[in-house]
Amino acid sequence: MTFPQFASKLEEPLVTFRTTCLQVNMGKLCNQACKHCHVDAGPKRTEIMTRETVNHVLDAVDFLKPSIVDLTGGAPEMNEHFRFLVSELRRRNVDEIIDRCNLTILLEPGYEWLADFLAEQRVNVTASLPFYMEENVDRQRGKGVFSKSIEALHLLNSKGFGSDLPLNLVYNPQGAYMAPDQQELETIYKRYLQEHFHIVFNNLYTITNMPIARFKHYLELSGNYNRYMNKLVSRFNPGTLDSLMCRSLISVGWDGLLYDCDFNQMMDTPVETEERPHIADIRNIQMAGRPIVIGDHCYGCTAGSGSSCGGALDSEEEAVAV
């Protein structure tokens, strides 16, 4: 089955706005290997950001002055320079420092310092919890992950996260499905986690699984790729376009190369420049008004309510069929 190219859905080219968020992938090393992971992260990955590249990131922060620095991985905390980077960002008074945390890293031997450090630095912990029930999470992330995640959430709550400090959870659908309404699902999450585990958090973000990397491989093996893509295409929502994260975000790979978004990074399609763009050359790269590199995976961010690292983008009332 063939699909209309994403570019055919656009009345005008997608270009960047002012960069307000610098998203930094600190490496593909992770203590987990989730089925839906578009990064293909895992315990055996060796790609990791060096101190030299971290210093270039800080230089870019000084130049761009983004209000948000979003640290991702893998498990970003497994990079030996994680504490240095976070401390330097806080010293620079960055408005919001986000740690994309998988929760279980908080319980790993050698990371006993992590929860206190995140609290001291007043980091926004945005944690992956792909469902609120044990069977679903363990099926997607591995046996025992749910119980460890609940233990980690209790630890974060005890440090003030979810009350005095921001704690957000991230939902990913299981299989070839789209996320339900974000607000309704957040209400269910909050009620269930409070009643069963006395856990509190601030916001739930629903994120569409992108048809790339490990998840694309799963879709192909299960015979669901065409069905999933057809679903995304048929629910294209033009109301999401102005809010796409690529409009105001630049993504930094573990090696310092620059991309319009985290998904383009995993597909190795860098920012559109004459040469492979690197964080060290940030001052020479056009930021606002630059054409955004697009592909058919962009349907994942523009289907239904839309999807971004900050959750849903728009009401599905504007969704249109092909």
Helicity range: 25-40%
Query: What proportion of the residues form beta strands (DSSP E)?
Result: 5-15%
The CATH homologous superfamily: Aldolase class I
Separation, N- and C-terminal Cα atoms: 14 Å
The poorly predicted ranges are 316-322
Mean pLDDT: 91
Query: In sequence order, what are the helices and strands, one letter per element?
Result: EHEHEHEHHEHEHHEEHH
Return Rg in Å: 19 Å
Question: How does the overall form come out from the CA principal axes?
Answer: globular
CATH architecture, please? Alpha-Beta Barrel
CATH topology: TIM Barrel
- What is the number of helical segments per DSSP (H or I, 4+ residues)? 10
- Structural class assignment: alpha/beta
CATH class: Alpha Beta
Q: Give the domain tally.
A: 1
Strand tally, please?
8
Structural write-up:
The protein is of the alpha/beta class. The protein has a single domain, classed as Alpha-Beta Barrel (TIM Barrel), CATH 3.20.20. Helices cover 30% and strands 11% of the residues. The protein has an eight-stranded mixed β-sheet with strand order 6-5-4-3-2-1-7-8. The longest helix has 16 residues, at 182-197. It starts with 20 loop residues before the first strand and ends in a 20-residue tail after the last helix.
